[in-house]
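Quick note —
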Amino acid sequence: MCKLSIIVPVLNEQDTIKACLSRLQYLRKAGHEIIVVDGGSQDNTLSIASSLSDFLIKSKKSRSIQMNAGANKASGDFLIFLHVDTILPARIHDLISQIYDRNIKWGRFDLTLSGQHFFFRVIEKCINIRSRLTGIATGDQVIFVEKEVFNEINGFPEIALMEDIAISKSLLKYSKPACLKEKVVSSSRRWEKNGILKTILKMWVLRLLYFFHYDTNRLEKIYS
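Predicted structure written out below.
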């Protein structure tokens, strides 16, 4: 059996962590593992996650560092890096097992956003098409990678932002990603809170600055 390690980086997610982990309990029962990596939560995230995960790790605050810490603890054949506000496809194990049997090393899913606004349909379609054309995956698309390959590239570069783009570039040296058409559902809360057009503009600016090697610590401040 292809064993999965689902790694969930969190920080002050008491309102979302229970729903996220509850959806994954059937995978635990099937022999897979859930690893929650906390970046210093000051709310009830830890107490909620303790009984719903196989490992609960404390780490320095940084998504890349947290995900690397989770990967170091993982015993699965494939690592799945899941944002706490994203829902996996129901057939996740079958899908990854097929990838494993075909000797594909990494990939991501198509993305759909939870909001109902028409702009969200345009945004998700653009993200999915761009990813297929460039081979670059976003964290919202749920990156998965064979653990052996993850170790060979030394995991995520420990940068403050754009770690998904950075690891995609490293993994492209092995192969193009498997771009699965099965969809993950990611929360549109950030877009709705900050404004759809404003968020799109901000992300374009951040990606452009990253392309020109702008300091990721400053990018993270802009993002936050």
